[in-house]
Amino acid sequence: xxxxxxxxxxxxxxxxxxxxxxxxxxxxxxxxxxxxxxxxxxxxxxxxxxxxxxxxxxxxxxxxxxxxxxxxxxxxxxxxxxxxxxxxxxxxxxxxxxxxxxxxxxxxxxxxxxxxxxxxxxxxxxxxxxxxxxxxxxxxxxxxxxxxxxxxxxxxxxxxxxxxxxxxxxxxxxxxxxxxxxxxxxxxxxxxxxxxxxxxxxxxxxxxxxxxxxxxxxxxxxxxxxxxxxxxxxxxxxxxxxxxxx
Length: 246
Prior knowledge:
This protein is α/β, with parallel strands linked by helices. Helix content is 46%, strand content 16%.
């Protein structure tokens, strides 16, 4: 129970890595805010956590809307009085080659994946500063480290999150708040559905472990980083990719 009674907000928590992370945090004793834009899936996600009464709540949030984000943080504080961890997991893809990408595709991904993380982190920062403690975990990607064909917008956001992580680690570290980024490789979630099968197979072939990652394998890293076992980790960017960068 490394996270016993700690309050964690996980955005994009109704599916994929977000849901796996919310489940892992609950299993480690955390009180979890399951935050997502899709109200139809939130209740099912909360139920899937298997947490006891009072250990999980569902909140609809649009991370591009600051009022919605503020309401999410207020709900966490109303339920439990504090926020100990924020996992900035919410993200989307709208892929296209540079010459065909529309301004709308570019802007939408920037708004969700980058500006949304800014909104969520700024919304919890004051609370964590007053507490003198907290953990911010940003969902970057190996795409943010080496780029990827057809993902100008997505790669830009994931590289930007690394910049956020380094900057906030400097700014918030003296306040007792740790910040880290996780860079998953290719993980078996619906976000990969937009990638053609032939392209996906070529990506898998590049992984020394010879397979896609599992959402639970990313969630376990988030749980470690949120715990006191990682108490001296700040500003780190951790690749969890099966070795695809080798």
